[in-house]
Write a structure and sequence with these properties.
48% of the residues lie in helices and 14% in strands. With 304 residues, the chain is of the alpha/beta class. It has 2 domains: 1-117, Indigoidine synthase fold (3-Layer(aba) Sandwich), CATH 3.40.1790.10; 124-304, Indigoidine synthase fold (3-Layer(aba) Sandwich), CATH 3.40.1790. Helix 3 (36-50) runs antiparallel to helix 4, helix 3 (36-50) packs parallel to helix 13 and helix 10 packs across helix 13 (276-303). The longest helix is centred in the C-terminal third of the chain and has 28 residues, at 276-303. It starts with a strand and ends with a helix. Bound molecules: pseudouridine-5'-monophosphate (PSU) and manganese (II) ion.
Length: 304
């Protein structure tokens, strides 16, 4: 048995059968600098409440799996240095050794499913990195989407990834990739990309019904909902392309590999855009939180 700790509001929502949206914590510890990380995490939680659902930020603290963090826990996690980044391979080991760590998309999906939560909002998922044909750097997030029944709302994939290869792997793994309200697969900082999304849905209730239909068919795995960044918050792809190139070159020069790659690139892009990447990132995460809250409520309405 593992120690599962629900926050007071998640406990109350569960007891009342209200909609809950899972949130990851790696975005807080490894995706954004302090103190903006804590401010953003609190805002995203509030967006979910304002949209009528309950937020459940997930992390492992001193060997306990927390689903929903109290404000002081969020604050200390966001300030802590050297917090472990937990993906599928690491979470059980962290729990067993009494450690503290932040959950990636993959680990958050596992924890959400364990706690009975089916909808999860984040910024961007991990995917196939550029040069994966030599490095084999493919995020465990993709395989998690293929096997754990959680619908993940993200803003597409960052151009730090090889986005066409990421979509190919998702197709191979049988993961539905659904663009919300448009035909193109959104490109994280930009709403549009040159790539068509395999599926399109225009309202949250359809996404909830597709989630429920997969459950009814006994299909393992979740769905990836690709929600475009709001128009006014975009950064043009042409502007970011040279910055991403420079960040990637720095990562290569410093021999960054494994778990270090994504956090390193995110931090370098933040520095090289003088914080603009963060402003856009915040806008899109909040936008995803609102959509996820809607899907979670629609899912409850279906099962009634
Ligand atoms: N992409 C982002 N922001 C993030 C991450 C990815 O735009 O914060 C984080 C997420 O937690 C994601 C993880 O699950 O990085 C992927 O890491 P890796 O590529 O090592 O699997
Ligand atoms: Mn990786």
């Amino acid at each position: 048995m593992i120690d599962l700790v629900l926050s007071s509001e998640v406990r109350a929502a569960k007891d009342a059968g209200r909609a809950i949206v899972a949130l990851e914590s790696t975005i807080i510890t490894h995706g954004m600098p302090y103190p903006q990380n804590v401010e953003v995490a609190a805002k995203v939680e509030q967006d979910i409440r304002d949209a009528g659902a309950t937020p459940a930020t997930i992390a492992v603290i001193n060997g306990k799996l927390h689903v929903g963090l109290e404000p002081d826990q969020l604050q200390s996690l966001g300030q802590a240095k050297g917090v472990a980044k937990l993906s599928r391979a690491d979470m059980a080991a962290c729990i067993a050794t009494g450690g503290t760590g932040a959950t990636t998309v993959a680990a958050t999906m596992i924890a959400a499913h364990y706690a009975g939560i089916e909808i999860f909002a984040t910024g961007g998922i991990g995917g196939v990195h550029k040069g994966a044909e030599t490095t084999f750097d493919i995020s465990a997030d993709l395989h998690e989407l293929a096997q754990t029944r959680v619908t993940v709302v993200a803003a597409g994939a960052k151009a730090i990834l090889d986005v066409p290869k990421t979509l190919e792997v998702l197709e191979t793994l049988g993961v539905p990739v659904i663009a919300y309200g448009q035909d193109a697969f959104p490109a994280f900082w930009s709403a549009q990309s040159q790539l068509a999304a395999p599926l399109r849905m225009d309202d949250a209730a359809q996404i909830a019904r597709a989630h429920a239909a997969r459950n009814a068919l006994g299909l393992p795995g979740g769905q990836l909902v690709a929600n475009p960044i709001p128009e006014g918050d975009q950064i043009p792809a042409e502007e970011l392309a040279p910055i991403i190139k420079a960040a990637q070159a720095d990562a290569d020069t410093h021999g960054i590999s494994g778990k270090g790659v994504t956090p390193y690139l995110l931090q370098r892009i933040f520095e090289l855009t003088e914080g603009r990447s963060l402003t856009a990132n915040i806008a899109l995460v909040r936008n995803n939180a609102r959509l996820a809250a809607q899907i979670a409520q629609d899912l409850i309405n279906i099962s009634r």
